[in-house]
Amino acid sequence: MTETLTESHAEPSVADAEALLSDELLAFLACRTPDAWVDWALENPELLLIDHAQCEKKAASTAMSLLYRYVDQPLLLTKMSQLAREELLHFEQVVKLMEARGIAYRHLSASRYAEGLRRHVRANDPERLCDILIIGAFIEARSCERFARLIPHLDAELAKFYRTLVKSEGRHYEDYLMLARHLTDAPIESRIAFFAEREAALIQEPDTAFRFHSGVPA
């Protein structure tokens, strides 16, 4: 399976793949994905795809929960409806890829990444919604960055698919951040900086189980 994941292809170098990312997105993240995680991902191709599918499903679920909770926010309803549909399409696409490669979708325990961010969400609105949207922006931005880091090492089919995801997840990052600014009266830069520091720590700290958003191998 690893050989299939990394067979020869004509995808870009690491520098070229990173060029798929906007300067704003790269500046938003406080660190880049460590090389150790990339190596870990290539050693666990089945887990990479299974957890990727799971992440897409969770992203759709998050968008749907916001649709149900904040029914008085028309812009949020529009953006989250679009996002949920796109994330579910991505889920279907990943499962189809897995099926073609003989990988069975199964439940995996969650990484500490999302919970490590959400534990800092403030209890009451509008601060609660602001934090959830900022966290959504970080999750989508990190996903983009990780897709770009992986692209140069993948087989042609998977690399091409991840290139399309860089674009769509980049839009999701922009939408989450736009909504956080639009729906919050007070400046949000201090909260962005707060979560940037914690997100970077989660990305760089050791983990015992590989996941799409895990840290480095312990």
Automatic annotation (TrEMBL):
Record SUPFAM superfamilies: Ferritin-like
Domain of life: Bacteria
GO biological process: tRNA modification
Pfam families linked to this entry: MiaE (PF06175)
MF (Gene Ontology): tRNA 2-(methylsulfanyl)-N(6)-isopentenyladenosine(37) hydroxylase activity
Name listed for the protein in its UniProt record: tRNA-(Ms[2]io[6]A)-hydroxylase
Taxonomic source organism: Halomonas shengliensis
